Amino acid sequence: MFPPLFLKTLLLELVVYEDDEPFQALLSICPVLEDLEVWLGEFESVQEFTINVPSLRKLFLHVSHYCSSLERYEIDTPCLEYLQLADWSDSPCLVKNMPKLKKAHVDVLSFAVKNVIGSVTSVKHLTVCSEDVYGDGIVFDQLQHLELCICQVDSSNLLAQFLKVSPNLRELGISQIDLHADLKTNDMGFWNQPSSIPECLLSKS
């Protein structure tokens, strides 16, 4: 059997957790883990959990809206380079700063978006879907490529906000991400028009 001590890739799907202890025990014996994928579904009874893996480089976390027992969770991965977070639950989350993050896919409900977005400001490539804008004081000075999903009601205002705080943006994609293909596309005709031209739209010549 391959010892967990040397495990670098781990997929946890269709695993039911009664509490956080087995999950933490598993992560604690994987000191060189680099790639982690976790799915939390409707049969979970865990109330809190933490992903604290200093060696982690890539994380995919999917929290189903059927995961009703979950009360909160925390992500503490300071070396993370890629994050894919799909959280459709109503659970508060704490995502700590990830200064090495280069690419992120964020699909979250409105209550979580400010905390999550505020932790991924170092990214160069971002895909985002959210029901709401994320508040003031957040700047994406490294962001070059933005993909915005338009299945949510406030997509147009979220776009305006990203244009305002992403001075180095070079590529913009506006579409409906694959996972939301069966959802209704919202009209982006109504939005709070910016009072000035965003810096990323000005000529750099």
TrEMBL record:
<feature type="domain" description="F-box/LRR-repeat protein 15/At3g58940/PEG3-like LRR">
    <location>
        <begin position="7"/>
        <end position="88"/>
    </location>
</feature>
<dbReference type="InterPro" id="IPR055411">
    <property type="entry name" value="LRR_FXL15/At3g58940/PEG3-like"/>
</dbReference>
<dbReference type="Pfam" id="PF24758">
    <property type="entry name" value="LRR_At5g56370"/>
</dbReference>
<dbReference type="InterPro" id="IPR032675">
    <property type="entry name" value="LRR_dom_sf"/>
</dbReference>
<dbReference type="InterPro" id="IPR050232">
    <property type="entry name" value="FBL13/AtMIF1-like"/>
</dbReference>
<protein>
    <recommendedName>
        <fullName>F-box/LRR-repeat protein 15/At3g58940/PEG3-like LRR domain-containing protein</fullName>
    </recommendedName>
</protein>
